[in-house]
Amino acid sequence: MPPFPEAAKSATENSQMRHNLRLATDTIRGKRESAVSELDDWSDLRQAGKAVKDRTLRHLDTYLEQLEESVTAAGGTVHWAADAAEANEIVTGLVQATGESDVVKVKSMATQEIELNEALAQAGITAYETDLAELIVQLSDDLPSHILVPAIHRNRAEIREIFRDRMASWGVPAPEELSDDPRALAEAARVHLRERFLDTKVAISGANFAVADSGSMVVLESEGNGRMCLTLPQTLISVVGIEKIVPTWSDLEVFLQLLPRSSTGERMNPYTSTWTGVTPGDGPQEFHVVLLDNGRTDVLADTVGRQALRCIRCSACLNTCPVYERTGGHAYGSVYPGPIGAILTPQLRGTASETEASLPYASSLCGACYDVCPVAIDIPEVLVHLREEVVSQPGHRAEKAAMGVAGWVMGGERRLDTAQRAASAARSFMPRRMPGPASAWTDTRDIPDIPAESFRSWWRREGAEQAPDPGGGEHGPDAQEGGRR
Amino acid sequence: MSGSRERVLARVRAALTDVPRDETPQDVDVPRGYAPDHDQGEAVGLLVDRLEDYQALVHRTTPADLAGELARALARRGAYRVAAPADAPGEWFAHTERDVVRDTGLGVADLDGMDGVVTGCAAAIAETGTIVLDAGRAQGRRALTLIPDYHLCVVRADQVVAGVPQALPRLDPRRPLTWISGPSATSDIELDRVEGVHGPRTLEVLIVE
Ligand code: SF4
């Protein structure tokens, strides 16, 4: 992957992608705001969500052992993976032990992070993605661009072409007369995957939450592909990051309110499945959890950066970020895009390479991501902290990374304008002089003085007349409400 | 594998040297100032409103009229063969002439051939328009409500709670749970919402008061 500035530059030149992305982030942002404003205790829920996760992280060893005990007591098997290679090895071995060569998958960021599908392919095992967006991404040999709606960079005409060209080589072909109506496309996906669901003996999932005291796994989804994978196969393997734990069953009362409203802007997502070990006569009779470290303990060791592990992957920070809206997810060079990616990826992988070193600069520090985060991760604080880390390393890498991003953000008058106004949001996040080693950089350069106007007010006022999109997708949808009426 | 268990746990402990040795999880304060529910209206009416918002079909009925209402729903749907859990009350089906197949181990292909499924539920949450199934009485195993394309669900008024925090204590985590909030849906294509992908594309709810 090229470092963020270069990737961002090429991404912003793709007007179709920007058009689709702006529409998506705009729509989801609006839905989220109305779903959140329905709950007058949102800030209490947010405080509780933050505190429950902090409690978990500060005592993670205790909770990991408790989870292992409860899963085992419920008839599941727990495996531990220090890194991606080990996790892939464990999963491959488990699939091989079943004698099967096909697996169905529920959308899972952890398995993308470890590139499980590629590892399985090397062992002659085909992993079929079953979430509609992931299916689109898989069929077109593409990469996800958004946590929640991974194929949002594709429009309906492109999706029709992908289905027509590629479905046949993965199974049931698309119908001859496939139109680009989303209903027809969803129906084609239903038919394409139906037999697969009914026949496949092994499924692989992630989990949104793993409950330590009960041993329950929780998956939130919309389409029912998750239910299919979690229910019909004989063997279920869940790959779960060690930070996904919540201490108790009743703690879910916080997260089942925070996550759907922050994520899709719904009061509740259509389907949530919870399961605990195995249940005789109902669902998979063999259940494995693979607990994944893969850099998470490095994040945990950093007392400032640790808060990134509170993330529940709602994607609200992506949808509100002016930088993400312009670059899309691919520019971040990782499965974790947007503001959370900018702090999580460099911590998981370290900042030795250029891509990771540039990510802490992929932000104007406007603070909008912190405002919307349901577990109150202070992303700007961690960004500044990581910039210090980059700066303290030998060489002039920070300078290069920072100027690369600044050059891109300020490359056009309009972008400069946007960045400045966006940055005015939370001036408290925008240090006049960066602390620590980074001060050497800020001391010789002015951070532009910015009028005190909140990001939100700017957004409301200016959002509508954001840079019109030259040549933006002719197949782009009308401004219809994406959600429930 | 046990090697990695110790390795990961050791790394976690090494990462947490800033946490005082005598700190317990309970020492990390969790403020629980949030509300058990949000006073958004009378529970059953609210549930109806939320479910309809999800494009579910909803009817309010009484114990005496339930069998008639259920028969009419199946007739409207044009469902001729419907599956039902083995322990669903016989009275539910007193007025329907349709073929009700009790699930005593139907295969997935059999389920795929059904025109629908009729079940009860364990709880319902008004504010979020959610019905929770726990594989308990009159609910059957999870595959039963997943494979047929039409799900008719009977909810008793005393199963309805207002908010999410009121539902969790009623539910047993050891059971496999399915929380259903409207029919299957996707917004993956240009965020255009389509009801129905892999789960039942039609959800119909009878609330018995
Ligand atoms: S950082 Fe916060 S807002 Fe962003 S995805 Fe994670 S939980 Fe959501």
Q: Into which percentage range does the β-strand content of chain A fall?
A: 5-15%
Beta-strand portion of chain B reads 15-25%
CATH architecture of chain B: 3-Layer(aba) Sandwich
Count of strand segments of chain B: 12
Q: Which series of helices and strands of chain B comes N to C?
A: HHEHEEHEEEEEHEEEE
Give the structural class of chain B.
alpha/beta
Q: Rough shape of chain A?
A: globular
Instruction: Tell me the strand order in the biggest sheet of chain A.
Output: 1-10-7-4-2-3
Query: Given the C-alpha coordinates, what overall shape of chain B results?
Result: globular
Write down the Rg of chain A.
22 Å
Classification by helices and strands of chain A: alpha/beta
The end-to-end span of chain B amounts to 55 Å
Q: What is the count of β-strands of chain A?
A: 10
Radius of gyration of chain B: 21 Å
Low-confidence stretches of chain B: none
Q: Compute the average pLDDT of chain B.
A: 95
Q: How helix-rich are the residues of chain B, as a percent range?
A: 10-25%
Please, what is the oligomeric state?
heterodimer
Protein name (chain B): L-lactate dehydrogenase complex protein LldG
Organism (chain B): Streptomonospora salina
Pfam families (chain B): LUD_dom
InterPro entries (chain B): FTHF_cligase-like_sf, LUD_dom, NagB/RpiA_transferase-like
From the structure above, extract its key features.
heterodimer, A: 485 residues, alpha/beta, six-stranded parallel beta sheet, four-stranded mixed beta sheet, 10 strands, B: 209 residues, Rossmann fold, 5 helices, globular, binds iron/sulfur cluster
